[in-house]
Amino acid sequence: MGAIDAIEIEQLSKSYETRDGEVLAIKDVSFNIRRSEFISVLGPSGCGKTTLLKVIAGLEGATQGVAKLNGAPIRGPQRKTGIVFQTPALMKWRTALANVLLPAEILGMPAEQARVKALGLLELVGLRDFTNKFPHELSGGMQQRVAIARALIHNPEILLLDEPFSALDTMTRGQLNVELLRIWNESKTTSLLITHSIPEAVFLSDRVVVMTSRPAQITEIVTIDLPRPRTAEMRVSPEFLKLIDRIGRIIGLEYV
Question: Given the DSSP bridges, would you call strands 7-18 and 21-33 parallel, antiparallel or unpaired?
């Protein structure tokens, strides 16, 4: 019997009740994520990508179908999961180090062990010299690095990223894409990224799940056969540009 996939999504649908009636956000979605794989879910804004992430995170339940973690149905938030949201959501009265330590405190991790781990993570994301800075003393990109470190403090098996770089300028976003890959190369944490950026999805991922407009359905799952480790220079390679063009055409964009 083969190894169980880290995440299994089976015929998942999710609807909401509104004053105007039922709204179907996700319709009959099925795909798996293998261990240590980096997957991106790509689709237009408002198509239901974040709803899918919330179901996988255990923050919302499915209307139909099932989401599984390590073969077991997800029935609520999981300690095995770390989440990075669109905005860093740091506590303004806590330093970078104290923000990273917050989940460790909530989960009751040994204090000294957690501190050593947090300092190591801040070094990993390039912020070892900013451990005692408060959020208002950090740039937007630095704040998001703190949020990534915070999500990794408890050694999660799964890292869920909900458009974490969407509010950043293009240059900072590109730099953090490279940093995220570097972190992933070291940790090999199974990762799921929600994005509407085709270049970001191609650069980071092993496979890209391309979704339709709401209700979100899978149009195609594209394998990204670029070699790893990825480098910034790859983003101007013919192979990279061909993948961008292919996915763009799948979602109805034309590149000249």
Answer: antiparallel
